[in-house]
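Protocol step 4 of 6: structure prediction from sequence.
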Amino acid sequence: MSIAHVDVCAKHSFLICVDWGTSSFRARLVSLDGAIIDEVETAQGILHCQGDFQAVLLSNIRKLESYKVGLPLLLSGMISSRNGWVEVPYTDAPINLSKLSEQLVQHQLIDEHPTWFVPGLKISGNDADVLRGEETEVIGAIELHQLVDACIVIPGSHSKLVTLEQSELTEFKTYMTGEVFYALCRSSILGLFEGEVNIQTHGFRLGVKEGYRLRNSGSLLSQLFKARSRVLVAEFPEEESRSYLSGLLIGSEVSSYPSDQQHFWILGQTDLAQAYSCALELLGKQTTLVNDNACCLGSYSIYRQHMC
């Protein structure tokens, strides 16, 4: 199954898929066969709505071409968290398309829009972990590429490694790699050097290899300082410091991935997704970047399954 943009006149409106995170809002109007008719994207994440979620939602979806009152809405992401609009409890992994579609929570909006919220997932016990929003992307990736047994990387401030078995999401792990990188650049001595992350530099590649070599040991805390000391002793230029730091953290994260896994699917086509792809391939792995529309396809598939 694929999902693509189409001529407005060629398709009839079927569903509005909303991916609503902490810092961003994205809505797509989808036709009956799953093609995107139109989309709108803003920076009105849940932290920027002053609690008036309904007004923000309606003002945005009314901008969509071929918008109609009464269209069903499917909302995923942090909008269903305790800080969002309608809190939907986490459901337990493992889960697949059929099970997830049964866990939707319905909510009635004004303008007669039947509305459903997608729950997040949780793992309990010593390996306790949670995700919210990524489950919809994973379902989309499964549908888009007919995935059965696979490892999916979801880059972000809190990146995720998701394991699939028989097209079922069985396990996942969260890594605070992006947030640690941001904190070190903003609030530590490592942020003194200017420059942007460039995955083509010697610094990034060196960081990946050294982060991987550390294998999550306490030595990482020592190695982090080398993002500064290597510049001071002129091993590489100042502008490569952040590239080295990024590579070091990503390499350390990747070192905990299953060593026997040779191929990884990476959600998204952002610069960060490219960085993970570069790091994994540098370490001898194969990667495939998944289309940015995976979340929309996931929402569409979940809704269709729910209505069956």
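Step 5 (inspection) to follow. Confidence is low (pLDDT under 50) at residues 6-10.
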